[in-house]
# Entry
Amino acid sequence: MSLIFFPPPIQKINSEIAHSAGVDLYVLRLDLMHPWVNGNKWFKLKYNLLEAKEKHFTTLLTFGGAYSNHIYATAAAGNLFGFRTIGVIRGEETLPLNPTLSFAVQQGMQLVYLNREMYRQRNTAVVEEYLQQRFGEVFIIPEGGSNLNGVRGCMEIVGDAMPTAGYAYAFNRICVACGTATTLAGIALSLHEGQRAIAFPVLKNGLFLAQEIEGLLTNYLTSDLPTPSNSPVPWQLVCDYHFGGYAKVNNELLLFSQQFKKEHNVPLDYVYTAKMFYGVMDLLKQGFFGRGDSLLLVHTGGLQGNIGMEKRYLRQ
# Structure
């Protein structure tokens, strides 16, 4: 499956802020792997697609909001690999469709809408049975690809995704934005002694994710999936850069993103990576990282969502 994907480049960020802090700063550009199925979404989907293929499913069903990167990527991946796709969308249908959902339909995805109360029960047996009765035998992928297959794929982000063997060991701090905690769990399982994973929750009051992370790590390590050779490395949550909550953006974050792209030629998505990059740069000013640290910032893609975010915020 990975033959159509480009190895993600590692880009050095020549920042005076990082230089003053005595820190080397790099970005893993997962956003450049593929025009449609990129970032951490590919890694979360990879083993779900393989399991669906091995079990002879022809239809994928998954969940997401109206601007979901996961919906966008699943629609494209399904089209690329020969699956029919169904996207269960939170809320009511709004026409005309936004760019995210328009793209999904163009890729062949059937859109189905659930009211918010029913959507909150999407992981229950009642809703799963309802969907199976309505659509027949479908392979269900949870919202965001947040399952053990997703964790397994994310274990490859800082390992197999590196362009040269051993490159991963050059970084002692790996930073990533955090939504469902799947990516952080996979990264924590893949790193080695002396390395630490640092996650920046994009949700308000993100400390609750610590329990989610521990649960994912425990469930993975007790599953029959391939296990890492090392124990999970230390990880931590930095919860101060959510900018008001999930998909919340203000002018300060918008201006930071625009300036970062101008200076370093790295576009950031407003929902995830912009918040993490802002947090890292702010922490560098505060001396949070040690002199001599080498940071790898994981760009998790999601740039397609910027179109909708800019329409919502730049017109205000």
Summary: The longest helix spans residues 39-54.
